[in-house]
Amino acid sequence: MDITFRAPTFSDVEGFDAIKKALEPIVKFLKASRPASKPSLIEALARMVRVSLPSIETEPILDSTDQFSSIEVPHCLLICGPHTSEKKSLMRALAGEANVPGFCISGRELNDVPVIGWTDEVVSELLAQAKKAAPCIIFVDNIDDGLDESARRRLIKLMDGVRVKGSKVILVANTSIPGALDLTLTRRFDCCIKF
Prior knowledge:
The chain is of the alpha/beta class. The chain is built from six helices and five strands. It has a five-stranded parallel β-sheet with strand order 2-3-4-1-5, sandwiched between helices.
């Protein structure tokens, strides 16, 4: 039996046309950064998932794509939306659309939890792996999920790590409760998209 695996793309996610349009510059940047000879890891590893999202009215984008040219491409992007909006599926489709690998962690994993063993060394290793696989995307899911001070420090370290000159790594975080985030953290994002 022959099974073909494919990463979900924007065409697999129904609705959210304004959000997809806002993400196009990031897709173009990642596609242009990818060597022609480098195979896509995500194509080999990810199974196609058909995602059907509810029809949701999109609110204006907080930072429009017109502003991307002034800061080049945003390397740290925050996506805000309700719990039911399937932000994670849209984030996965972003990697599929750009045909690049994605690394995913949750906000909870950034906290000091002995069972998980998430340490500063692990964050450094994640950055090293992402830079080696670049161009790629680091997804940080639910950054509103009770980040303690050390977790915020680790997230900032990730953000600073993808912002270096010539970086081909994009960090995309999502939240359902943007008002619960620390202002010093939200100000570090280059762009915020709300729906």
